[in-house]
Design a protein that fits this description.
CATH topology: Pnp Oxidase, Chain A
CATH architecture: Roll
Number of strands: 9
Shape: globular
CATH class: Mainly Beta
Order of helices and strands: EEEEEHEEEE
Number of domains: 1
Length: 169
């Protein structure tokens, strides 16, 4: 048998990707029906430099960028995706919405274990909707679910280390 994980000595398997919840802003209820969340990815640029008398090219830490995150769900009457996307849209208002909390929001992604207990929580900072698809291509001959998606730009994310791992039974 393999070596157990160092944090929880009774757990041998990694967590599954299909047990998760997503929260927008300070909401205490999850966003309805989210079926897919793009990965959390950050990239730091290396800065190469040389020192006198040293033949080796050294590398320092440069700027860090955070990739956009795409959320996907089946089309329903819930308007959370559209409401947030509309905050960035310029129509008769002449400019994007500037109401507090409308355009930029914190997003929380919670990974759960098989029992549904939260095991990992990530906070994504200052998100805003850069792309919104309200309906997919509609095809009467297809056998699929209508999906909507939003693409969220963000200014970084961090793991919430205050969440402690539940005891496995």
């Amino acid at each position: 048998m393999g070596k157990p994980f160092s944090v929880n000595s009774s757990r041998y398997d990694p967590y599954k990707t299909y047990r998760f919840l997503v929260y927008f802003g300070g909401s205490t209820s999850p966003v309805a029906g989210v079926s897919k969340v793009g990965g959390l990815k950050r990239t730091s640029e290396p800065i190469e430099y040389k020192e006198g008398g040293n033949a080796i090219v050294l590398k320092g830490l440069g700027r860090t960028t955070y990739d956009a995150i795409t959320l996907e769900r089946g089309v329903t009457h819930d308007s959370d995706f559209q409401d947030w996307a509309d905050a960035a849209q310029v129509l008769d208002k002449g400019s994007p919405s500037t109401s507090l909390g409308d355009l930029r929001k914190e997003m929380i992604i919670v990974l759960q274990n098989e029992r549904g207990d939260p095991v990992l929580r990530y906070i994504v900072h200052r998100c805003w909707v850069s792309e919104y698809q309200a309906l997919p291509e509609l095809d009467a001959g297809a056998n699929s679910v209508a999906l909507e998606h939003i693409k969220l730009e963000n200014e970084g994310w961090e793991r919430d280390r205050t969440l402690t791992e539940p005891a496995e039974t």
